[in-house]
Write a structure and sequence with these properties.
Helices cover 39% and strands 4% of the residues. By secondary structure, it is mostly helical. The protein has a domain of 65 residues: Orthogonal Bundle (Helicase, Ruva Protein, domain 3), CATH 1.10.8. It has a two-stranded antiparallel sheet. A hairpin with a 2-residue loop joins strand 1 and strand 2. Helix 5 packs across helix 6. The protein is flat, with a radius of gyration of 26 Å.
């Protein structure tokens, strides 16, 4: 009997190894692209990507901004990132830092402190967003109070939604646990 149990365990482990080694069908597996990785504006971009889609990996660069950079600097959109020269990379970084884009593409129009239209790229986005929320909390505005209490700020209903990490209210049935 003891030998039967041992053989059953061995057979189970062999079956598990076989099922683990086979990739599941229907799941999409992403492999990291091979090639050089370039660093533009403190962001790593795979060299196998096109310039047009690769620039969108940078925080604050949308498809429209990427298109504008390619158009203004006269760079082909389908050029691979790994084939860029140092001068081209410096031109791209300078263009993104300067933020000389059409007004409808800018992400920081009429800044609260300066009143100037500009475009923010990289970690400055998080910093400015955090400072804006702190300002709203400090002046005790409605949106600031909603941020402080962790509730939705844009008018969403809170009766049945916005319940992450909260207990369910009275009168809401819990699903029975199957045993």
């Amino acid at each position: 009997m003891a030998e039967d149990k041992k053989t059953e365990k061995v057979q189970k482990t062999v079956k598990q190894e076989k099922t683990e080694s086979k990739p599941r069908q229907g799941l999409i597996t992403k492999e990291a692209p091979t090639g050089r990785i370039l660093r533009i504006m403190q962001t790593d971009i795979y060299g196998s990507k096109n310039l047009y889609s690769g620039l969108t990996n940078i925080k604050g660069v949308s498809w429209g901004i990427s298109n504008a950079v390619c158009h203004i600097l006269k760079l082909p959109k389908n050029k691979k990132i790994e084939t860029l020269t140092k001068e081209e990379i410096q031109k791209i970084e300078g263009m993104l830092k300067a933020g000389k884009f059409p007004q409808f593409l800018l992400n920081r129009r009429k800044d609260f402190n300066t009143g100037i239209d500009n475009h923010i790229v990289g970690n400055d986005i998080d910093l400015n967003k955090e400072l804006d929320i702190k300002r709203l909390k400090k002046i005790r505005s409605y949106r600031g109070l909603r941020h402080a209490t962790g509730q939705p700020t844009r008018g969403q209903s809170t009766r049945s939604h916005s319940r992450t990490n909260r207990k369910k209210g009275v009168g809401i049935k819990t699903k029975p646990v199957k045993t």
